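Translate sequence into structure tokens.
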Amino acid sequence: MKEENEWTTERVRRWMRAIKLILISALILGLILLVFSCATNGIWFWTTTVGTIGLTLLSVSLGFFFAGLTIIQRPYNLIIEVFGQYYTTLEAGLHWICPLFMKVRAAIPGWTRPIPIFEEKPSIDFKDGGTAVLVDPTFWCRITGPEKAIYEVSNWQAAARELIETYFRSYLGSITVEETIVKIYEKKSSWWTLLDERYPIIRETLSPWGIECQSITVTDFDWGDEVVQKLQEVFRERRNIVVSKLKTRAAKYDAKKEALLIGGIVLEIKKILVQKNGYPPDEAGKLAPSVYQFVKAADTRSLFLTSPQTLESAVATAIAVIDKTREKIKPA
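Result follows.
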């Protein structure tokens, strides 16, 4: 049992030493009297005054001892007081708590526990306008100093909640709605990251109370109407930008596709001019674009693309028309 503590007074330690000394002395005296009575009176020792006193002292001592045995489960810590004053803190294990004199002031669990904050659901004001109601804001903490949490502050949960709410409200009031959205939704930041610049202040304030802050979580924001309108405008602009980029990419793709298609058709026309009409390759290369333009203008539905025979027929018609045109404009 750890007795040396800044809250344990010298008077309490003297009391406990005296109580332990009395109990041990009573146990030893009872044993001595009982052994003496048995030696002098045999099995009838209990009928004598000495035997009765010894048996009583032994029974009372053992009763006090076994009545005070206590098993503490993890992760609880028991704050023990003697006559209303702090005596010690008991951790998990088997301990002896003296009946009548020792009292359990509080049982403090050592696990990380959630403490809801902003239970009244107030509207939080952001910098440069905008409000929001926090959805399920929670402060996660762990008690590292049970004695401090009990004796240094009247209600450690209420005090920690008030402190976190104050700093949290101050922080959100120092950033804009846009900065909040960027930090939370785009960078996937945790709330403790948002408050990291205020961590030393929070730590210094909570440490004397024996409280360690683990994290602060918020499920979502219930934004005000003005923020919702601004967000809708932002999302609309982003959507328009995305649509514009997609249209630009589609136009480039269509232009590239058409260029490839035209190039392939022109090459096919050149091949037909060389093989079917007997044009030299150089002259066929010069004439092929003109033939393509004529065929495309004559067949708006691009039926000449459906088969090579159709294309050959269209090229033959175009050559005939071009030849007639040349004869008409040929000087006499």
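Note: The chain has a mean pLDDT of 78.
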